[in-house]
């Protein structure tokens, strides 16, 4: 294959990965009589920019590309979607797990019919990581499994300053357990 064709395929793949094509359920709003702070929290959630959302800028371009390929290939093969988000703050949230859950729901990670999404959120300055699963996903990837992956695969790499390696090892382990 010619180099020009390879570059064109790479650019088309990156362009495709940056598109958001996710089904979302709609819900009706009920009149509220009390102040709901969850809306304030949800308004602090950024807009998605792809399958890798490196707002915390902890990955290099080649790392983002490699991880995108792993996640995109898995999505195509299984229709299960994994999204990785790095951020500098979870404010106004106090709990990264709640933040990851709200972010996954707001973005519509996974398909609406199967609720088969998985959202990994890393806040490097906060020194926190959370994995949120859709209700279809948590039947296989339980909270215990996700916690074990964080503790045994991700955290040891993070302690060595190897953020990409930790996320990659964690993603690969989650994919293996999700088959």
TrEMBL record:
Alphabetical UniProt keywords: Signal
State if Transmembrane helix is listed as a keyword. no
TPM domain mapped to chain residues: 52-175
Q: Which residues form the signal peptide?
A: 1-23
Top-level taxon in the UniProt lineage: Bacteria
Identify the PANTHER family for this entry: UPF0603 PROTEIN YGCG (PTHR30373:SF2)
Q: What is this protein called?
A: TPM domain-containing protein
Could you tell me which species this protein originates from? Aequorivita vitellina
Source organism lineage?
Bacteria, Pseudomonadati, Bacteroidota, Flavobacteriia, Flavobacteriales
